[in-house]
């Protein structure tokens, strides 16, 4: 029988509980997917710990790859046996099999494994909108990127470099610098070990950077602003160390007529045409060797709590997968 991981309350990894469920026949517009690989993302952690509220009780998981086992009425974009993947809701991806809206499925190229898809699709679509829509990275663009040794960071680095950018990565400790360098960073800075804006100024011959991607938040926010050239763009992509303090519009003016944005995945992958285009771009980047799907560690579905603990503690060194 299918197994799913659910939460009845928010809290630490221990709130993740395995349940056995009945396989369900798809209603109109739905399919039943037998899942091969499940991506674990930091958004899952924030939903589990209550930082991002979800109605309870709830399933977790917004990314998986597998095969269509059965379809409901009015489904014409996939067929039984098709290899498919998805990101975003409804939540419930931590499962060996599940119902899912057919229209949100994307077909997986034959030459890309389910493990590789679940390693990169969510993170790759995130990277795609950040370097294509939030800021059009191209030849000569200078980028400052925090979390350069992480799963999203490594995709962003490789993709930005393929577009001709100069990338300065920021890591939390010296031991992570080698991973950022191997991903293609032109320079790597360790947070807390230097005056970051001053080092950025030196590395760019005084020009500073065009765009900052900052997922840390409160402790790094002002340093990020001070690393931007006039009319540069500050992209707040998360707040793993707490939300930044409020910003006055006068501050943005005083620091060089800066731009500030806080983009989110849902706004860039809800429209079906846009979503499919971004997924196709990720698959193309994988096939071209721009994105290299490398999972740091794979956990059995029954050990979802251990996967969350590894991700939340900062011990992970890349993408984390669950396998039914």
In short:
This protein is α/β, with parallel strands linked by helices and 324 residues long.
Oligomer: single chain
Q: CATH superfamily of the largest domain, called what?
A: Medium-chain alcohol dehydrogenases, catalytic domain
Secondary structure: helix percent: 25-40%
Strand content of the residues, in percent?
A: 25-35%
* Outline: globular
- The total of helices stands at 10
In the CATH hierarchy, what is the architecture of the largest domain at level 2? Alpha-Beta Complex
Query: What string gives the helices and strands in order?
Result: EEEHEEEEEHEHEHEHEHEHEHHEHE
- Total domains: 2
Characterize the largest beta sheet: strand count, sense, and whether it forms a barrel.
Answer: 7 strands, mixed
N-to-C terminal Cα separation, in Å?
12 Å
What structural class do the secondary elements suggest? alpha/beta
CATH topology-level fold name of the largest domain: Quinone Oxidoreductase, Chain A, domain 1
């Amino acid at each position: 029988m299918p197994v799913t991981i659910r939460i009845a309350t928010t809290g630490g990894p221990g709130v993740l509980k395995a349940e056995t469920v009945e396989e369900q026949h798809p209603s109109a517009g739905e399919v039943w997917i037998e899942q091969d690989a499940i991506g674990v993302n930091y958004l899952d952690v924030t939903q589990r710990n209550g930082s991002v509220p979800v109605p309870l009780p709830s399933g977790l998981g917004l990314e998986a790859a597998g095969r269509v086992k059965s379809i409901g009425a009015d489904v014409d974009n996939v067929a039984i046996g098709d290899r498919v993947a998805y990101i975003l809701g409804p939540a419930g991806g931590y499962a060996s099999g599940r119902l899912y809206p057919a229209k949100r499925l994307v077909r997986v190229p034959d030459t890309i494994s389910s493990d590789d898809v679940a390693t990169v699709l969510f993170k790759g679509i995130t990277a795609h909108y950040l370097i294509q829509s939030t800021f059009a990275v191209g030849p000569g663009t200078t980028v400052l990127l925090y979390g350069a040794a992480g799963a999203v960071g490594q995709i962003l680095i490789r993709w930005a470099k393929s577009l001709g950018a100069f990338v300065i990565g920021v890591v939390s400790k010296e031991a992570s610098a080698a991973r950022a360098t191997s991903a293609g960073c032109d320079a790597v800075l360790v947070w807390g070990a230097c005056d970051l804006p001053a080092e950025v100024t030196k590395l760019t011959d005084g020009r500073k950077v065009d765009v900052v991607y900052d997922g840390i938040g409160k402790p790094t926010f002002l340093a990020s602003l001070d690393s931007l050239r006039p009319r540069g763009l500050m992209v707040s992509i998360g707040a793993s160390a707490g939300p930044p303090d409020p910003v006055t519009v006068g501050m943005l003016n005083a620091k060089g007529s800066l731009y500030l944005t806080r983009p989110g995945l849902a706004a860039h992958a809800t429209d079906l045409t846009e979503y499919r285009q971004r997924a196709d771009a990720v698959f193309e980047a994988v096939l071209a060797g721009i994105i290299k799907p490398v999972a740091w560690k794979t956990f059995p579905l029954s050990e979802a709590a251990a996967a969350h603990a590894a991700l939340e503690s900062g011990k992970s060194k890349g993408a984390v997968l669950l396998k039914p």
